[in-house]
Write a structure and sequence with these properties.
Blueprint (H helix, E strand, L loop, with lengths): L15 H17 L28 E5 L5 E3 L2 E2 L5 H12 L7 E5 L5 H13 L5 E4 L8
Parallel strand pairs: 1-4, 4-5
Antiparallel strand pairs: 1-2, 2-3
Helix pairs in contact: 2-3
């Protein structure tokens, strides 16, 4: 008895579906990743003996608001939290350039009015790129 033997065909693996899934996962992780601004380390740098200090204009402006309502503009503490003081500090730091991006970082327990005051002063000075920084609390997730 003679059996018909068919030639065995090589199995094919279609990778199109696998590549689609990998790209979708890549896009998902890129979109869902949160970027956290880490706290900065305080470093004491050596001082120079020259009397002239050339101040370069900043690339961005940071306003930080503490729980007690203390304002810090680019790391320098303001003497009070009145709108006039904030306005003068922003003018001095920006050198009149209102196209710089401005970021407001407030403590979670700071009063909402402080953030609104900072946004109002920045808006009246002509700043249009105003960002509000947030931090996710890992204990609440």
């Amino acid at each position: 008895m003679r059996l018909n033997l068919r030639p065995k065909s090589q199995p094919e693996v279609n990778l199109t579906s696998l590549i689609d899934v990998v790209f979708l996962l890549l896009i998902f992780f890129m979109v869902s990743t949160s970027f956290v601004k880490q706290s900065q380390i305080s470093i004491r740098l050596p001082e120079s003996d020259s009397a002239t200090v050339a101040e370069e204009p900043p690339e961005k402006i940071d306003i930080m608001i503490t729980e007690a309502g203390t304002f810090l503009v680019n790391g320098r503490e303001l003497i009070n939290n009145r709108p006039e003081t904030i306005r003068n500090a922003l003018r001095r730091v920006s050198s009149g350039n209102s196209s710089l991006p401005l970021t407001i970082s407030a403590d979670a327990n700071a009063r909402h009015q402080y953030v609104v005051t900072a946004m109002d002063v920045a808006g009246r000075l002509g700043f249009t790129q105003i960002n509000i920084a947030t931090v996710n609390d890992p204990t609440t997730e």
